[in-house]
Amino acid sequence: MSSEGVQSRMAPVSSAEFRLACGRFATGVAIASVLDRAGVPRGLTVSSFTSVSLEPPLVLICLGHAVTNLEDFRDARHFGLSILRQEDRDISTRFAQKGHDRFEGVSWLRGETGVPLLASALAFIECAAHQRFSAGDHDILVGEVVRTCVADGAPLVYYAGRYARLAPE
pTM here? Predict the structure, then answer.
């Protein structure tokens, strides 16, 4: 049987099935952040983040078209990533919710590129916007890493629709 015959008979995968399958991939959690045109910090929780290349150093994040801050990310020359610590569940939840100033009451600093970075982060990654494109219902933002800073600690992990902890070896 040819691969063409198999493809023509396969039922499309539903969004729910796809989400369930992808949820079985454990991810770290980060806050993606930019400054809007007025210089106000904007950010949101992301788990769709990955390294792309070492030479040059590139990362990508995926932002849904329904994200309230999407235009701020589309317009930004730089964006930041604050990799969250295991203790930062409340920050992750705060930045995932709409309808409030996500940075209010959260300790942050300006990176060398000006992007807001969370003071409690396990690591910072500052990026210059390299490429942006649309794929399905998301924008993919590729950034060239221009600065990093790392600390020791355990990462915040998300698995199967909830937070999880890494098991010690």
Answer: 0.88
